[in-house]
Fold these 2 entries.
Entry 1:
Amino acid sequence: MTSSIFPLHLCLAAVLLTSCQNGGKPPVSLSQAVKTTAKFESQSFTPPPRRIEDVRRMLVAATNRTPAAVARLKATAAATAGNGASPEERARSFYKRAVAAGELGRNRQMRDDLAAARAETLKDSLLKANILISTATAQAD
């Protein structure tokens, strides 16, 4: 009877001894624990927003965009693109519209406008680079 209980006691002792280990971390003194507690007490707790309107208000406050700036972005994104005599002018109008659409979160319109801008034959390498970089960013989203 005692021989069948001995392995159980041995396993229990091993579990208890290993659970008392601190993982190689040095023990914390009482003064250090008090300092750490004082650090946390000085921080205030901000409860999470309760309603979706609170979340929307927080997001609007975080964007730092005025209603006039948002209206300009919407107007630019809604403007007709592709008007221009040269391929650069057409590509630039598509690019401006794509950037505005991206700022408004209209990723599909942004990708479509960037594809139309890429389709133009461009000599301006800086504009071509901006279009390609924006395309890569839009496709990563």
Entry 2:
Amino acid sequence: MQTFVEKVFRFRLFVDPLGSSKFAEVPGDCKLEIAAGQPHALQVIAPRLVGSGHFFDAIVRVDDIWGNTCQDRDLHGALVITAPDGGQRTELVAFATEGWTFARISALSFAAAGEWKLEAWLNDEPGVAPGVAYVQSEEGALRPLYADLHVHSDDTVGTNDATYNLTYGRDIAGLDVVGYTVNDFNITETNWDAAVKTIHELNEPGRFVCYPGTEWCGNSAAGGDRNVVFLRDGKPRFPFDEQGRSLRSFEWNETTAGAIRPGIWPVDRLYGAYEDDPEGHLMIPHVGGRRCILDWNHPELERLIEIGSAWGQFHWLYAEALARGHRVGASAASDEHQGRCGGGAPATGTFGARGDSPASSPTVSTVLALALHFGRGALLPRLVNGVLRFCPKANISWARCLMPSPMSRSLTACSATPAGRKFSFSTATRWCGNAICMPKLASASAVCGSVSAARE
């Protein structure tokens, strides 16, 4: 039984009219909409760490028992904010009455240092569980930026369209950055061009950055899955290069009439397609449909490795990369196929099914992709009780960023606006390619699946 929302669920009928095991599609699909159920619990989405006196937003949403955000409901509630000294104040919450049932509480600010509690309640709905989040306020601290760099839509093998998925990430999951990835063999050129246009339109300086990307789907014998994230503005180099050569692993979609068209294979040829501009491209090996093999490595392009997703936790993959001497950052992403990027429910036995994994708790699901890059004087990984921990050295300064920052789509503290897109923060947060470089991280604690950044 499908438990996730889908705007158009299709029943397709095929018949064998001649009894020859040759089936023909019957025209006219039966379609229905799978909608969210009754309100079951509130979720509070907020950053785990903020600087004292700095402003931030929190999101409160109403979910059904399956983790879908409810829609078209006239509900009201309250957000009770408890200070470290026990003092309380209450913010009224007016949820959107059309579309997703959520509310964004803007310009929150905590002057006192310490841990603050945010607890949301629905009025006159005692059966709906409250939502809770905790925010640590520290003098001079920087707010982490949350990203999901592995998101699918119905352009390929995901659920619901690109606009639905990307706005879910922005409005419901509270993400700062989304990487939209299409399966390279399955996307048509028309759908790709439309998705790239949508991505450009959804970029909002200072609030939301969205990247187009592809998932190169070579099998493990050819190197295995690699996501390619296009970091620059303009038309990405896909599905063809400037000479008209295909940059897909292969092509197999509704335009190929059942035939499979070869592309670039193995992964060495994928490196060759983008290594002339490593600042404008990011490749992320991962475990998913076709496990990546780390015998292949391009240190300038592959600056992240995905070690957590809805497929599971893969700290062993990162341990292997470090053992091989690869200098890469660790990330986790949803690899979401059910239309809930930044908040998809991990599976216990079936991919994408609602399960009881601890990673489905609201305090963790807000941190589905925290990329921590380490260099000289920055974050060093070590294994603590079976968990990879990134422990800052003393007197940490800016981490030496392994990815030079392209001018487009950059997060910077500069007041001048460079060409392309940028975030501007009053604090000195730097976005370098796809790394989040933050000073004074020694007191931060961010959990992403089995990956932690914590005090030594």
